[in-house]
Amino acid sequence: MSPPVVVVGAGLAGLSCAVTLHRAGVDTIVVEASDGVGGRVRTDRVDGFLLDRGFQVMLTAYPELHRQFDVEALDLRSFDPGALVMHRGRPNVVADPFRAPRDLGSTLAAGTLRRLGTPLDLLALARLRMRLRSPHPSRLLTGADLPTSEHLRRLGFSPTFIESFLRPLVGGIQLDPDLTTSSRMFDVIMRMLLDGDAAVPAGGMGTVPHQLAARLPDDAVHLGVPVLSVTPDRVRIDSGEVRAAHVVVATEGPVAHRLIGGREVGSRPVGCVYFAAEDPPTDRRLIVLAGDGDGPALNVAVMSNVAPSYAPTGRHLIAAALPGRDVTTETVEATRRQLRGWWGTRVDSWEVISTYSIAHGQPDQSPPLHPRRAVRRDDGIFVCGDHRDTGSIQGALHSGRRCAEAVLTELAA
């Protein structure tokens, strides 16, 4: 029998690649160092709670979501458009003026824009929407590139609105509180937010990679198999070597660099603290933003408001995301103090269910950002992952698929 294509890594990119190859009739195996599929997209079940490994959402406008998944089977539960901004101890609902126009009147009547910015910021948002909605999303990755913070200033947003709304919103998505990430990536993410919802599957984000893995033969994915080294036709593991028709390295960027060298991939770290409460601090299905920048948490979500399945009956799950932070005892207490300033002494009774410190939450995407990097190296090894496209679920899935298509082209030659 001819050797299979061997995919190293069972994250979203590796699974996307393997499924595409399998559908084309190519014998494919996946080797994964950890004890489960998904890479950074996994969900743990703890005492009846569903805990994603770090606060994550799926943007429903991602093209690869609809191309590669049975979206209905994911049972996505959406956040409401807009955000709840905590500013000087009070909540401020910022409605999406285009997707939730009925809420815009209450936003204006409550004086939210006066506290968080100026009426000109609403005009800047309208101009931004018009600019982003016109071209195809892929064209947004080809324009001039500069740090997001400078991009926002040039778009006409006031410093107050940037600090109170855009920094916690965009900085949370890009794991970049300082807004140094590529403005191209900002434009793409904002386009996805304009076109669709932020959502989570009812069964947790881990159901996303599991749906892909279920499309592979039962013996195709091998867990707990660390890879020591690779060549174009060999994968070396503890027990020996695996022959391969082709090798695809589909690991996160730092591991790929260790295996095959090349450009070193920087990392955006992130921490997450999960609290359990008897009563939710808000009944809104909105992402809560830290409008004062007064603590380690940049954004917070009451997950059980959005997807009740994330918590057992009668309890609620609160996720606090800490971009750029490790989670320590001191960090947890600082987060609790921050949330106490928002919601009072009820926070003192919240139980810490679990914490996560993720050293490589996303690849660094400082400008200039160059997506669609080559998936075939000169030495014949193939490589895919969000570090080859954009640091997102969309980028991982797209990279995996186009890597598989490149392998198929070579097999047919």
Gist of the model:
The protein is an alpha/beta fold and 413 residues long. Helices cover 34% and strands 23% of the residues.
Explain this structure:
The chain is built from 14 helices and 20 strands. With 413 residues, it is α/β, with parallel strands linked by helices. The protein has a seven-stranded mixed sheet with strand order 8-7-16-17-18-15-19, with helices on both faces. A hairpin with a 2-residue loop joins β12 and β13. α1 (12-23) packs parallel to α10 (207-213) and α1 packs parallel to α14. The two termini are 19 Å apart.
Present the secondary structure layout.
Blueprint: E1 5-8, H1 12-23, E2 28-31, E3 43-46, E4 49-52, E5 58-59, H2 63-68, H3 71-74, E6 76-78, E7 83-87, E8 90-94, H4 101-109, H5 112-116, H6 119-133, H7 148-154, H8 159-173, H9 183-195, E9 198-201, H10 207-213, E10 221-222, E11 227-231, E12 234-237, E13 240-243, E14 247-249, H11 253-260, E15 267-277, E16 288-290, E17 299-302, H12 303-306, E18 316-323, H13 329-343, E19 351-363, E20 382-383, H14 393-412
Parallel strand pairs: 1-2, 1-14, 2-10, 7-16, 14-20
Antiparallel strand pairs: 3-4, 5-9, 6-9, 7-8, 11-12, 12-13, 15-18, 15-19, 16-17, 17-18
